[in-house]
């Protein structure tokens, strides 16, 4: 029998690292060494701040390279990195590093382009405080009721942080559905692209999927 699903939520705080870059070589240097929580902040904080809008989040690295450093070509390449295709922050970090390294090999003079200190890229760390909600489920019907009740922050934690930052391999919902033997539902939810929906849209989509499955099973 599957373990009950406990809904958790999170509070995310921003913490400065004291690290800053004024050139591509410096950006590259710190990208190699900063904690994963820094990579997470600079690729996901837009979603947290604008979670009721349809996300259109270029990552902070792309914005700084394009709009501050003035390298539009590299900026476009960094924007095109598909965050959802990476199973971990380590893999995502490597893609940023590889993309910048390749660009610098082709255009070595860009190593000497820099901005004034007041325009520097400041590396920020995301510090998450995780705590349980009162909501728990042992079946799909209870899960649906819990999903209706929890906040946007809970959805964000189980969909984004679990898959990428915590490296669970998928979102927590899909993993639990699979443990129930609901393979088709698990796969359908796992295929949702959370970066092109608001949290509310995702909530409603998952609820509709669960509703259809309950109807198939004759459960109202």
- The value of Rg in angstroms is 20 Å
What is the N-to-C order of secondary-structure elements (H for helix, E for strand)?
EHHHHHEHHHHH
Question: Which range best describes the helical content: under 10%, 10-25%, 25-40%, 40-55%, 55-70% or over 70%?
Answer: 40-55%
> End-to-end span in angstroms?
22 Å
How many structural domains does the protein architecture include? 2
**How much of the polypeptide forms β-strand, as a percent range?**
15-25%
Compute the average pLDDT.
Answer: 88
Question: Helix- and strand-based class?
Answer: alpha+beta
Going across the biggest sheet, name each strand in turn. Answer: 1-2
Total beta strand runs: 2
Q: List unreliable stretches of 5+ residues.
A: 52-56
Number of separate helices: 10
Shape: elongated
Main β-sheet description? 2 strands, antiparallel
């Amino acid at each position: 029998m599957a373990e009950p699903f406990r809904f958790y939520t999170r509070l995310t705080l921003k913490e400065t690292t004291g690290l800053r870059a004024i050139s591509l070589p410096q950006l590259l240097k710190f990208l190699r060494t900063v904690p994963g929580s820094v990579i997470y902040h600079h690729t996901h904080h837009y979603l947290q701040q604008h979670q009721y809008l349809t996300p259109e989040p270029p990552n902070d690295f792309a914005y700084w390279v394009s709009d501050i450093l003035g390298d539009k070509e590299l900026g476009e390449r960094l924007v095109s990195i598909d965050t959802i295709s990476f199973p971990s922050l380590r893999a995502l970090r490597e893609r940023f590093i590889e993309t910048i390294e390749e660009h610098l090999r082709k255009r070595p003079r860009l190593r000497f382009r820099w901005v004034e200190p007041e325009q520097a890229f400041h590396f920020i760390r995301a510090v998450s405080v995780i705590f349980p909600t009162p909501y728990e489920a042992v079946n799909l019907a209870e899960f649906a009721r819990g999903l209706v009740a929890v906040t946007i922050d809970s959805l964000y934690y189980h969909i984004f942080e679990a898959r990428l930052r915590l490296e669970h391999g998928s979102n927590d919902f899909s993993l639990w559905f699979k443990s129930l033997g609901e393979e088709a539902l698990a796969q359908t939810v796992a295929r949702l692209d959370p970066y092109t929906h608001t949290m509310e849209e995702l909530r409603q989509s998952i609820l509709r999927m669960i509703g259809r499955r309950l109807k198939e099973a004759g459960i109202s």
